[in-house]
Design goal:
The protein is of the alpha/beta class. Helix content is about 40%, strand content about 15%.
Length: about 350
């Protein structure tokens, strides 16, 4: 199996728990490892913490995949903030996941890795923060799968969190999103090298995973973005420009991500439902008393703005702001300047409100 640690920065640190970790759906991990990065300095009061939650194929290296958000006066300012980003439970960039060694069998978990949920990811992050001696978070921020974690932080550990900023996400995964995920997983399963998830180290289901990524890219961007960027241009190799782009994106993911991990995390996303086991959707969302700034991407076809507006209606201390760009769901990774400014404005507003409350 490819060693994805080659892709992890040398600044990454690890938190290990030897206690059994029980998952929401009944599985048990004998122990737990969380890969994480930090930037800045934790102040004496330990109240300047910003927690970044990454999306599906992200890692703890937030300064790489969210480059530009880290700057003086920017969203994540190392002069004032203590910033933490951990690789989610179930991923392949250092945290316990399908590529980890199962101590009970002596081989990688592979498809035997227990089904997990977004709540499990947040509980694992909570263990990490406890290990770092942190019990107060100034802001939890993230998009897509990261946004799901942000919202769950508000319901699982409301006593710790002072503000939430989810981006491009809903309060429960829609049938539209579940269908996208299932089609992508079926592409992986259809690859002859899948072998029920027990594929060979040097022969992963590359065609299936590449096709899954190509499908995903069609939902991460918008009609307008594809039209303006690619049109019907045909290249010298006879392929439409958009065909070459999608094939490139497929190969790129195969080179940096694990198929079992993709299956595990997309299934966790499909389970996302803030009201699951808590009561009616409206009542549960109405109970959240934490300030929430919800970033909605106007051109997002995966999580349309109506879903963020629903969160805004149901959460009493929430507000929806809009990123009106043509890039689609991935706009949070593209229009960094605007996204950073939005985070800064929310941080500053919350600082003023907290100062007034303290007075």
């Amino acid at each position: 199996m490819r060693d994805y640690r080659e892709l992890i920065s040398k600044e990454t640190r690890y938190f290990d728990s030897q206690e059994p970790f029980a998952t929401e759906l009944g599985g048990v991990l004998p122990g737990l490892r969380m890969a994480y990065r930090t930037w800045g300095t934790l102040n004496a009061e330990k109240n300047n913490v910003i927690l970044i939650c990454h999306a599906l194929t992200g890692s703890a290296d937030a300064d790489v995949w969210w480059d530009g958000m880290f700057a003086e006066g920017g969203a994540f300012d190392e002069r004032n903030d203590f910033i933490i980003c951990s690789n989610v439970l179930g991923s392949c960039y250092g945290s316990t996941g399908p590529l980890s060694l199962n101590p009970l069998t002596g081989r990688h978990y592979g498809p035997d890795f227990p089904a997990i949920t977004v709540r499990d990811m947040v509980h694992a992050q909570r263990l990490l923060l406890s290990g770092l001696g942190i019990d107060s978070i100034r802001l939890v921020v993230g998009a897509s799968l990261g946004g799901m974690q942000v919202l769950e932080w508000g319901f699982l550990y409301p006593e710790m969190v002072r503000a939430l900023m989810p981006m491009g996400v809903s309060g429960r995964h829609s049938s539209w999103c579940i269908a996208q995920s299932e089609a992508q997983r079926q592409a992986i399963y259809a690859d002859r090298d899948w072998k029920g998830g027990w594929y060979e180290p040097d022969a992963p289901p590359a065609s299936g995973l590449g096709a899954a990524r190509m499908m995903a890219m069609c939902s991460y961007r918008s009609f307008e973005n594809f039209q303006s960027r690619f049109g019907r241009v045909i290249q010298e190799n006879g392929l439409f420009s958009v065909e070459s782009y999608l094939r490139y994106q497929g190969r790129k993911l195969v080179d940096r991500f694990d198929a079992n991990t993709y299956v595990t995390l997309t299934k966790a996303m499909d389970m996302h439902d803030l009201a699951r086991g808590r009561g009616s959707y409206e009542t549960v969302l109405g109970s959240l008393q934490i300030p929430v700034e919800i970033l909605s991407i106007i051109s997002d076809v995966l999580y349309p703005k109506e879903e963020q507006e629903e969160l805004g209606r149901l959460m009493p201390k929430s507000r929806v702001i809009y990123l009106d760009e043509p890039y689609g769901h991935d706009a949070f990774l593209i229009d960094i300047e605007k996204v950073s400014r939005m985070v800064v404005e929310f941080k500053n507003e919350r600082a003023v409100q907290e100062s007034h409350s303290a007075a």
